[in-house]
């Protein structure tokens, strides 16, 4: 069967979804709610193309090519609408891809990770990571103007985490017997862009955050655990989005992390409501309410019915393995 | 199994008043539906609630018509009266629960409030105490025995008993008629009739004497009933006649009630308003208005009812019927205006094995849909088509529209006749009435009408002795505007969340349980009998070339005479507002007419001379929609109107696709900033940009049309948006942008001070009163009370 894409003929089998055909033909079609081997429903609209015959905008993950179909896959209108759908999703996605402290550190220290180890009491690993980040291995913090503490999100709640003191403390712990597996993996490459930001906290959010994040460093752990696999971040970065122009607001509680099962965790404020986890679990995740207030929830009794592999399906860091 | 889910949930709520946890556990056990699904479905529909309510539920209608007449103020007044604080919706003694409801469909009586089954019209914020007292009194009063007196009658008294008539006290008038007949010894039959649409003139009674003379009385009060009856009927005994004469004399002299009595105004004056209201109308869907008893099948037949059905079943082939409808040019009255004949043809083709187009249908759309695992069309698999099904879409969810409700309540037999003809044409043996749960009266009437048709052999096996069998059941919608959209409606009938699907495949090819499904709107079906009976040629003589026939509109808002009207397509909006509606209320100039509800737009006064039909309205940036016409006067703020509709669609969006779920919310954010004086100029451009994107890229009709109210007001009233950025709301509708002030015209009468519920005006007799802005809630009671027009709204940031 023949279809036309951007004015060029394309031969397709007709048995595969349009998005698959387009990607195979070399078009870089973004998508979030689509997963090739799983049940999915078109919802995110970032894979949109234009059917030239009807002038309709269609999610390419939900339609099969038909003979003579004329598709516009890359015009300005199509790409700007895709971009806007990403921007809209980001406006409802309360998360920092990377922790601001790490992003601003002039010495390139993965501050957020060091504090994570510190909070878990894994001081030796924290030290190993710290040292691997530094070359030469001397701590520059004493002379630094502490941009990390200025950027610290905790500032907007009450006051900054005492990052330099913690780093000092970590640096003074005795060195580990053998280098940790984790610190070997730590990379020195500059942090990738962070199109998503937590945004401003409301007064009630501040109160909640103060209670949840009290010990021992008071760090909010804003860095996203799912950042590496996040498709929202990937496509937003490719589209050149630095931040959503629509501000930030969400009906969901910010930084609320729920343990699901095994190593699977869920953070609702990062969810884009694509429903992949709902369609691919049986009596597991489910939709609650509708419209902007719609959220994805799971009952306590249903947690046993889901599987860690759902984290791979999730296009954002809402479902992640810890 | 799933198909039973929504009806079962409705039963539980009916029984316990909410979704009681133990009952839900039992439901899970009995049906095997899992918890996750149960939450997903029950939380989608607004009908279901998870907390117990008070003994009585007060529903404040916030439909469009009520909104422009101050429904928010009424809601606030109830909160004050019931002493509800914070998020509480139920009173401490659990007697009342207060909630907002999208639309009760009584727009001509706005603002409207429903307490349990009783409807109260024209509720002003200052009157909520009275309304509650009245309700309590009614509750206390035992149900009157309304045994019909079936002796020889001297005539007939006809009373409209629709929702809206009841709201304006028709029930009391009816009781008064029955009482008066008893005490005066007059024997007349009291007959409930269908809505004549003159909702502005209710309670309205017609007195028909045995000589066939009919006199119509608008705005009847219960204490006037006795005189009206005496005017027409002679009491049965001489003694009573004499007694009545004396008593009446005394009444006349000793009370002031009879001075302003309608009996003393000459007949032409009395009926003129109604006659002009009815002039210019043309009845197809509402034929028999004012004299047809909705549930009298004999009367319907005597008026030519079921003639079309007999003609269709006995003299026409299926294709002939479809062709007739196609040639009539009938277009779907639900909003889109898709040619009905084409839809019928598509369903007919999809379900007939030999037809060439059914082959092409499965070739184009026969691939498995990615979303559902068992969605391979039966037609494609077995090589033979699955039987079609017919659905009558009565999920009229637009705030400000009540056409379908009245058609279902007042003309149920005509809609059923249309359905049977449609079913015969496409070969369906099964039909479903989808009626929204907010219309209990319609559900009851349709149920009764269906029983009557079955008894008469119009439904069931071998209809009218032919070999065509067909039956209809009722499905009650559970409260979701999006379910008016075909694919969402099907999802809800299947017991799922009302998530729409991408079309194609269209329901006509793959709908309810993947069967070819014909979905027609109530009004569309009610036009069908006329077409079959009189022929397509006759039908096309009514209306315009592109949109033949008539359209039923719900005329409401700031108009003098609102109500249900049926006019030929092509009538201008100005004719409707000025001639039928009597112009804008309080002598204001017409500013705009909003058509099509939350999917439609605002047409400014200068364009109101254009003819109303599907294409004309689309060109102006509005849509026909299902037919709500809300009149807006100079005192209506267009930004507030746009925000009102966005708030509605934002709450009703299903939440599936990004543009509708998040995009509409972001538009609403901007409108919220505009109406509170926090917006900047660039917000207007951003709003427009977002609106265009949502319109372009949403998945279903709800999202694609939701920006219309914003786009049309931006197109015609952009300067009002700009004024809002500068902190000015000319009409004073946007609360945060104005404050109340008392001018020098104040004489110190203290009326305002006494009426103020929040003690914002100090009691200072004979001195000019002063409003404490910090305490003022802008309920407007003082303005209503002031006889000197001394209280005005001024921009809040200009004065100190």
Largest sheet of chain A: 5 strands, mixed
CATH class of the largest domain in chain B: Alpha Beta
Q: CATH top level of the largest domain in chain A? A: Alpha Beta
Number of strands of chain A: 10
User: How does the overall form of chain A come out from the CA principal axes?
Assistant: elongated
Strand order of the largest sheet of chain B: 14-13-17-15-16
Per CATH, the architecture of the largest domain in chain B is 3-Layer(aba) Sandwich
Q: Portion of residues in helices of chain A?
A: 25-40%
The proportion of residues forming helix of chain B, as a percent range, comes to 40-55%
Walk me through the structure:
The complex is a heterodimer of chains A (322) and B (800). Helices cover 29% and strands 11% of the residues of chain A. With 322 residues, chain A is of the alpha+beta class. Chain A has two domains: 1-88 and 231-322, Ubiquitin-like (UB roll), CATH 3.10.20.740; 96-223, no CATH class. In chain A, the strands form three sheets. In chain A, strands 2-1-5-3-4 form a five-stranded mixed sheet, covered by helices on one side. Chain A has a three-stranded antiparallel sheet with strand order 6-7-10. A two-stranded antiparallel ribbon of chain A has the order 8-9. In chain A, a hairpin with a 6-residue loop joins strand 8 and strand 9 (295-298). In chain A, helix 4 (111-119) packs antiparallel against helix 5, helix 4 (111-119) packs across helix 7 (163-172) and helix 5 (123-133) crosses helix 7 (163-172). Chain B has 32 helices and 19 strands. In chain B, the strands form five sheets. Chain B has a five-stranded mixed sheet with strand order 14-13-17-15-16. In chain B, strands 2-1-3-4 form a four-stranded mixed sheet. Chain B has a four-stranded mixed sheet with strand order 6-5-7-8, with helices on one face. In chain B, strand 13 (550-557) and strand 14 (563-568) form a beta hairpin. In chain B, helix 15 packs across helix 16 (356-365). The radius of gyration of chain B is 27 Å and the shape is globular. Chain B starts with a helix and ends in a 5-residue tail after the last strand. Residues 142-151, 247-271 and 355-382 of chain B have low confidence and may be disordered. Classes of the chains: A alpha+beta (322), B alpha/beta (800). At the A-B interface, strand 4, helix 2 and strand 8 of A face helix 3, helix 26, helix 27 and helix 28 of B.
């Amino acid at each position: 069967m023949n279809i036309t894409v951007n004015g060029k003929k394309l031969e397709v089998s007709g048995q595969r979804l349009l998005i698959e055909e387009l990607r195979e033909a070399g078009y870089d079609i973004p998508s979030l709610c689509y997963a090739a081997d799983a049940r999915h429903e078109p919802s995110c609209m970032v894979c949109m193309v234009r059917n030239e015959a009807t002038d309709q905008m269609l999610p390419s993950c939900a339609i099969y090519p038909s003979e003579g179909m004329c598709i516009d896959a890359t015009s300005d209108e199509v790409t700007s609408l895709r971009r806007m759908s990403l921007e809209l999703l980001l406006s409802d996605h309360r998360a920092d891809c990377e922790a601001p402290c790490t992003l601003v550190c002039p010495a390139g220290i993965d501050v957020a990770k060091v504090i994570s180890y510190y909070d878990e009491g894994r001081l030796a690993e924290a030290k190993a990571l710290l040292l691997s980040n530094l070359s030469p291995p001397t701590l520059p913090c004493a002379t630094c103007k502490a941009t990390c503490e200025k950027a610290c999100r905790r500032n907007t709640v009450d006051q900054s985490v005492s990052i330099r003191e913690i780093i000092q403390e970590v640096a003074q712990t005795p060195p580990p017997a053998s280098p940790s597996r984790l610190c070997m993996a730590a990379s020195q490459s500059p942090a990738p862009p962070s199109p998503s930001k937590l945004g401003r906290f409301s007064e009630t959010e501040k109160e909640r955050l103060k209670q949840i994040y009290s010990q021992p460093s008071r760090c909010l752990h804003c860095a996203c655990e799912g950042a590496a696999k996040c498709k929202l971040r990937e496509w937003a970065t490719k589209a050149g989005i630095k931040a959503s122009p629509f501000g930030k607001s969400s009906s969901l509680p910010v930084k609320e992390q729920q343990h699901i099962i095994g190593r699977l965790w869920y953070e609702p404020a990062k969810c884009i409501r694509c429903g992949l986890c709902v369609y691919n679990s049986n009596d597991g995740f489910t939709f609650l309410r509708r419209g902007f207030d719609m959220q994805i929830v799971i009952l306590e009794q249903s947690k046993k019915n889901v599987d860690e592999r759902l984290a791979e399906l999730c296009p954002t860091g809402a479902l992640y393995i810890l | 199994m799933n198909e039973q889910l929504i009806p079962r949930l409705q039963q539980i709520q009916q029984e316990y008043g909410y979704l009681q946890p133990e009952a839900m556990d039992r439901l899970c056990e009995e049906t095997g539906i899992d918890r996750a699904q149960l939450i997903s479905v029950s939380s989608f529909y607004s009908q279901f609630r998870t907390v117990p309510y008070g003994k009585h539920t007060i529903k404040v209608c916030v439909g469009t018509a009520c909104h422009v007449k101050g429904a928010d103020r009424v809601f606030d007044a109830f909160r004050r009266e019931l002493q509800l604080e914070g998020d509480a919706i139920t009173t401490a003694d659990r007697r009342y629960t207060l909630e907002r409801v999208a639309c009760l469909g009584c727009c001509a009586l706005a603002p409207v409030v429903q307490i349990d089954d009783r409807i109260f019209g024209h509720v002003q914020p200052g009157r909520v105490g009275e309304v509650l007292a009245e309700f309590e009194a009614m509750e206390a009063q035992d149900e009157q025995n309304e045994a019909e007196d079936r002796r020889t009658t001297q005539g007939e008294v006809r009373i409209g008993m629709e929702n809206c008539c009841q709201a304006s006290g028709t029930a009391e008038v009816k009781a008064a008629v029955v009482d008066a007949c008893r005490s005066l010894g007059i024997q007349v039959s009291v007959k409930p009739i269908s809505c004549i649409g003159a909702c502005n003139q209710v309670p309205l009674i017609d007195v028909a004497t045995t000589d066939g003379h009919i006199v119509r009385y608008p705005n009847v009060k219960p204490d006037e009933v006795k005189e009206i009856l005496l005017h027409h009927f002679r009491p049965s005994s001489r003694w009573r006649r004499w007694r009545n004469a004396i008593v009446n004399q005394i009444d006349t002299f000793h009370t002031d009630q009879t001075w302003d009595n309608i009996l003393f105004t000459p007949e032409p004056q009395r009926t003129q308003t109604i006659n002009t209201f009815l002039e210019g109308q043309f009845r197809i869907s509402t034929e028999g208005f004012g004299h047809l008893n909705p549930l009298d099948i004999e009367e319907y037949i005597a008026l030519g009812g079921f003639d079309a059905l007999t003609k269709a079943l006995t003299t026409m082939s299926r294709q002939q019927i479809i062709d007739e409808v196609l040639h009539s040019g009938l277009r779907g009255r639900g909003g889109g205006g898709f040619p009905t004949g084409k839809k019928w043809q598509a369903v007919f083709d999809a379900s007939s094995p030999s037809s060439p187009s059914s082959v092409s249908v499965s070739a184009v759309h026969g691939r498995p849909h990615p979303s559902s695992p068992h969605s391979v069309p039966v037609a494609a698999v077995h090589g033979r088509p699955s039987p079609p099904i017919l659905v009558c879409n009565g999920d009229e969810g637009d705030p400000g529209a009540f056409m379908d409700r009245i058609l279902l309540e007042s003309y149920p037999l005509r809609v059923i006749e249309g359905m049977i003809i449609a079913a015969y044409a496409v070969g369906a043996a099964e039909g479903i009435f989808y009626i929204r749960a907010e219309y209990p009266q319609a559900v009851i009437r349709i149920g009764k009408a269906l029983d009557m048709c079955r008894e008469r052999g119009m439904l069931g096996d071998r209809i009218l002795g032919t070999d065509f069998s067909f039956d209809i059941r009722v499905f009650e919608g559970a409260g979701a505007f999006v379910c008016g959209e075909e694919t969402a409606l099907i999802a809800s009938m299947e017991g799922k969340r009302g998530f729409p699907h991408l079309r194609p495949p269209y329901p006509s090819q793959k709908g309810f349980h993947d069967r070819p499904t014909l979905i027609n709107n109530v009004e569309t079906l009610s036009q069908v009998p006329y077409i079959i009976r009189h022929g397509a040629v006759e039908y096309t003589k009514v209306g315009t070339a592109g949109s033949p026939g008539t359209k039923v509109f719900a005329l409401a808002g700031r108009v003098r005479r609102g109500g249900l009207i049926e006019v030929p397509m092509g009538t201008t909006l100005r004719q409707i507002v000025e001639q039928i509606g009597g112009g804008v209320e309080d002598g204001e100039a017409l500013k705009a007419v909003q058509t099509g509800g939350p999917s439609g737009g605002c047409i400014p006064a200068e364009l109101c001379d254009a003819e109303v039909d599907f294409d004309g309205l689309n060109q102006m940036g509005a849509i026909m929609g299902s037919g709500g016409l809300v009149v807006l006067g100079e005192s209506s703020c267009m930004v507030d109107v746009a925000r009102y509709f966005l708030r509605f669609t934002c709450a009703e969006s299903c939440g599936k696709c990004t543009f509708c779920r998040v995009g509409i919310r972001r538009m609403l954010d901007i409108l919220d900033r505009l109406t509170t004086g926090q917006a900047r100029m660039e917000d207007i451009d951003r709003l427009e940009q977002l609106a265009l994107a949502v319109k372009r890229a949403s998945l279903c009709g709800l999202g694609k049309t939701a920006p219309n109210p914003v786009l049309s007001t931006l197109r015609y009233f952009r300067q009002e948006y700009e004024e809002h950025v500068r902190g000015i709301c000319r009409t004073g509708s946007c609360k945060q942008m104005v404050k109340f002030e008392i001018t020098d015209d104040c004489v110190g009468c203290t009326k305002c001070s006494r009426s103020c519920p929040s003690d914002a005006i100090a009691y200072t007799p004979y001195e000019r009163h002063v409003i404490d802005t910090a305490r003022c809630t802008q309920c407007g009671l003082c303005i209503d009370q002031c006889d000197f027009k001394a209280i005005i709204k001024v921009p809040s940031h200009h004065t100190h």
